[in-house]
Amino acid sequence: MPNDLTTLSKEAVTREEIVALAPYSLSDRDKNEFLLSIIKEQLKVARCNNTHIDNYFNKCGIDINAIQRLEEIPYIPVQMFKEFDLKICPEQEIVKILNSSGTTGGIPSKIPLDKATTLNQIKALKSILADYLGNKRRIFLVIDHEGINKPEMAFSARTAGVRGLSIYAKKIFYLLKEENGKLSLNLPIIEDIVNNYSYEDVYAFGFTYIIWTIFFEKIRQGNIRFLFNDFRLFHGGGWKKMHDLAVSKEVFSDRIAEIFCTQSKNILDFYGMAEQTGIIFVDCECGNKHIPAFSQVIIRDPYTLDTCEIGKNGLIEVMSILADSYYDQAVLTEDIGVMIGVDDCPCGRKGRYFRFVSRVEKSEPRGCGDTFRESDR
């Protein structure tokens, strides 16, 4: 597979070819053309297979054939996953339901996954991780407890994160344990790692708030240090709580890097969501989040929903071509971000790159659900 598809007809490019590319090899212009034709065909399937989506398109006057730009693709507000069944494949093909964390009013999003979608998401995540880790298998440290994998536990974004990032694991260690509903250090495991796995190539994963409030605090109090040959920590989520604690991303990276005896650039914050499983937007060495070939990000003005220019804060819209089982083609989030640039990041990765700013101050949107419901006819 070549590193780019610029020599091929835009109409002939398939999703499989896009996912097989090096994830940051396409220019923004080429990617937009490739994705547009794929997404338009996916919209037709979604419209035929889901009444709510058909109602939405009808009420908004959506003519799929007339769409000329990715910015014109109809987006779904992320809270609609909490209110509606957005499945676009037959019920019997669903193999699992992914539940979000349910931060909005305690109601989780429910994301239906079929086998094809799950495989696409695994391939996509593997491609992203390889860009940061290479293809060599490593020791994988999970800064969470092993119980999140139990069959009786709901399949959550937390579980999906661990399973997804374990792609390159040759051995997995869980650094926390859960007792009576509380998390604490799994000291026997940590001692085993320090004594027997120092100077190995290692990567780790955890949720930012858990790492800071449970893992880091206890590790610091115990004066424990890890020393590995090559190390990366992928972490995400929880920045609203971290903001409440007055802990910035820079402070977090510096302090966590200290206990792993590594540089701050190896503490990699990523932005992702249950509704777009398989895609994580990881910090590069310049602190920018890059968008892989099978995805796109648009920043929209929160008042007009027009596309924001570079450098202006707005709502993050995430696009994808990975899902066959639910509408992931365009999801408008409740997060604020800012587009930093296009095709010119000093790290060398092509395409758009952005930064996460904050969660939106909570206010319940009104009228969105009515657009999905059937009209009285």
From TrEMBL:
Matching Pfam families: LuxE
A GO biological process held by the record: bioluminescence
Naturally occurring in which organism (per UniProt): Methanospirillum hungatei JF-1 (strain ATCC 27890 / DSM 864 / NBRC 100397 / JF-1)
Record protein name field: Acyl-protein synthetase, LuxE
Domain Acyl-protein synthetase LuxE: 17-374
Superkingdom of the source species: Archaea
